Amino acid sequence: MEVFIEKENNQVTASLIGRLDTPASLEIAPQMDSLKEDAGGTIILDCSQLEYISSSGLRIFLALRKAAAEKGGKVIVRSISNEIRSVFMMTGFLNLFEIQ
Amino acid sequence: MGAKTTLPTLDFHSQEIMQQYHQLLPAYEKIASHVSGQLKNFFDEAGIILAAIEHRVKTESSLAGKLLKKGGKYKDIYDITDITGLRVITFYIDDVDKVASALERLYEIDWENSIDKRKAHEIDSFGYLSLHYICRIPESAYSDPKYPEINKIRFEVQMRTVLQHAWANMNHDTGYKSGVEIPKAYLRNMSRIAGMLELIDDEFSRIRRELSDYRRRVQKLVASGNLSDVQLDGDSFKSYLSIKPFEPLTKRIASINQAEIQEVDLSKFLPVFKTLGFNTLGDIDAMVKAYSDAAYQIACFQIGLTDLDILSSSVAPQDLCTAYILKNGGGIMGLKQMLDTLNGPSEVNDAMAEFLMEQSKDLPFMNQ
After folding, report:
1. Which residues pair with A7 in a beta bridge?
2. Alpha carbon distance B8, B17 (integer Å)
3. pTM assigned to the model
4. Per the count of CB atoms within 10 A, which of A80, A91, B103, B243 is most buried?
5. Which residues from chain A sit within 8 angstroms of residue B322, using beta carbons?
């Protein structure tokens, strides 16, 4: 699992590549936590190369959403596959995020 | 560099007052900022929404003008009570009295010099309506060694509604300070507007009271379970959500994987229920009773074979709506409409609707 973070103006994009299962969630947690510093702006989670997401991965997304809500920013989930979109839907997460 | 203001020539007594003004200027400014901040916090905590709180300290030239006209009236600077002035502007006429009560609680009121211009009018005249309090910060409430005079200085707080404020500003702008005799037709027209605005202020307050009464009635009906008597709208749905109607189903679904539940705002389901043709809270309640088992079957099928152990509380109403749509012949189009309403219109909702349809079509509830 790899994460590439790119900051530009008031926007930060994290590109998630691979399978976001429980071990991978632990591995990338510090990097994803660092995004909270930018939660006052827009955080884009680019999921075009994300193959799988587990509950631990959803918790990471949720923590970012919470931080953004507190700081007046927003989280955009971009380019998710239908498979991951169905996970979002089954868990009721689909309408928690702006999905592009 | 700004143009230097030419001050009028003042007598010796007024010049002494001007000197006191310059010495006390930091204290006047401190009072303005302290009181403004304190009032803002007070009303925020009390949940009273105000249009504005303004403050200003009288300028040197404005004070000089005042002293030129009636300088002999004042023994010293402390007799002038409007050097620091604040204005609290409310949306509703009822809130003017709430603001007044707050000032009475926070400050010492100089009743002798405070004016209720709302009472000053004859029964057949209309015009400037405002409540002015002359206040002082009691030492027991706040003091600052840097500004020892702060508890001695009196300041003025004007309280009025936005409409009274608009009228006063327009009247001030075109009227009484011009020094020119005002045509009677203008006065009559301003008086007509004042009367009209007074009526509008009363109407706004009446509407607010009626809305509060409606909310209380809805809350009572929701609490007593008479849900079929309650029309479905934003207020009633909010009251309905407060009794957590979807919680038993949410917990039942969460128990499938011993999942953690993330509570989220469910108000976005209101337009979904509206598009399903529900008119009363009773309609939703009937759906919850009739379709909970079906919604549970959908959830079991979707997450039962996964290790997903986190769910949002929107899962229950989402699965209820899915079951209702499918059971009532809404098909893929109905599901797409639900997803469009919940998540915003998108082409991918077609795929999700098909996915939901595919998952649910062979479930027992579809064949019962």
Report:
1. A12
2. 14
3. 0.64
4. A91
5. none
Instruction: State mean pLDDT over B250-256.
Output: 94
Contact B310 A94 (CB under 8 A): no
CB pair distance less than 8 Å for B308 and A92: no
CA distance A36 to chain B (A): 19
The Cα diameter of chain B in Å comes to 100
Distance CA B256, CA B244 (A): 20
- Do B116 and B36 lie in one domain? The reply is yes
Within B120-183, where are the H helices? 162-174
Question: A96 vs B268: CB contact, 8 Å cut-off?
Answer: no
Partner residue facing A86 (CB), from B309, B314, B352: B352
* B209 lies in some domain: no
pLDDT tens per residue across span A8-54:
888 999 999 999 999 999 999 999 989 898 888 999 999 999 999 99
For B208-238, letters b (16+ CB in 10 Å) and e give eeeeeeeeeebbebbeeeebeebebeeebbb
pLDDT at B51 over 90: yes
Q: Using the beta-carbon criterion (under 8 Å), do A95 and B268 form an inter-chain contact? A: yes
Q: How long a stretch of residues is chain A?
A: 100
CATH superfamily of the A2-99 domain: STAS domain (3.30.750.24)
